Amino acid sequence: MSIVDSDSPLLSRAREGDLTAFEELVTRHEKRVYAVARRMLRNDHDAQDVTQETFLSALDHLPRFREETRFGSWLLTIATHAALKVIRRRKGLELVPLEDAADAIGGVPTPEWIAPWSRSPVELLETRETLRHLVAALDELADKYRLVFLLRDVARMSVRDTAAALGISEANVKVRLLRARLQLRERLTRLFGDSTRRMEPHRHDEQPEPPSVLGGALVTSGTVAAPSDRDI
Amino acid sequence: MKCTELLAILNEYVDGEIDPGICDEYREHLDRCDPCQVVVDNIRKTITLYRDAEEFELPTDFRDRLHSALRDRWRRR
Ligand SMILES: [Zn+2]
Fold it and tell me: Are the C-beta atoms of A38 and A44 separated by less than 8 Å?
């Protein structure tokens, strides 16, 4: 947060013609922009093109950048649109299908592997192993889910903007996002979940169920993450 | 509210866009349903991980090219 907030002074200097300030901004954001492009495109070369295009475009449009948007979000939106152009050029619309009837009406899969994670995201991100798992989990997602997840949850685009960018309905964006989130959660919880605290899915709500035994561990209530972990 | 109903509006809850009336029901369910509480927490952490992870290194030669392209464009503005 602090890095993002402190973009303002650099932005002002860059606007006044200070190239060093602009390069400092690029240095701050280039890794994130590249990572998002690389995740969308799954190809180093295309990701580099998109990253370069993004910062050139940012440079051209610097006078028009509105301060109420965060600079980082603005960059990710530019990068996302540039990456989508590449995807469309590469494979036509098949990668980003229009309406998908199954998405509109189909139910969502219920969570199966349920357990609190044994480490916080900050701790997890300290190891290369986590990064490899993140890449693998995202690679397993179908394109139509992966793109919606990246646009909504990583680039933080609105439902409306995501729908417009992908040429699908807002309802479709919502269902795809839910499926993407659930699938990633399932996969990552199998890796990061504390198996000694694994719990059974609630099959119904009518009566409280007795504690159940799963994988040799007694699953009891009251062992979930502390409230402070729950707000992002 | 049942777990499956909670699942159906999970996005809105996680994104803080839920109708306040439904939100109370949702919270009540979460208060007494550990599995759902854990699922919501897992999803929030999943999103945080992907937001914060920088799993691809910027190749050094590309970074040099990028900055020199930007300097060129800057001078020609
Ligand atoms: Zn539940």
Answer: yes
Q: Residue A2 has what pLDDT? A: 46
Structure tokens at A73: 């979000």
Buried b vs exposed e over A70-94: b needs ≥16 C-beta within 10 Å? ebbebbbbbbbbbbbebbeeeeeee
What does the H/E/C string look like for A139-198? HHCCHHHHHHHHHHHHCCCCHHHHHHHHCCCHHHHHHHHHHHHHHHHHHHHHHHECHHHC
Write the residue in A23, A52, A114 that is nearest to B35 by C-beta: A114
Residues of chain B with C-beta less than 8 angstroms from the C-beta of A82: none
Q: What is the mean pLDDT of residues A166-193?
A: 94
Torsion sign over Cα B24, B26, B32, B38: negative
| A17 CB within 8 Å of a chain B CB | no
In angstroms, the CA A150 to CA A182 distance is 14
Instruction: State pTM to two decimals.
Output: 0.77
Q: Which residues pair with A193 in a beta bridge?
A: A117
For A178, which residue in chain B has the nearest alpha carbon? Answer: B11
By Cβ distance, the residue of A122, A153, A225 closest to B41 is A225
Give the CATH fold of the A98-201+212-232 domain. Answer: Arc Repressor Mutant, subunit A (1.10.10)
* Domains of chain B, each with CATH number or no CATH: 3-76 (1.10.10)
Domain with CATH 1.10.10.10 in chain A: 98-201+212-232
What is the CATH number that goes with domain A1-95?
Answer: 1.10.1740.10
Nearest-Cα residue of chain A relative to residue B31: A222
Output the pLDDT for position A156.
Answer: 87
What is the largest distance, in Å, between two alpha-carbon atoms of chain A?
68
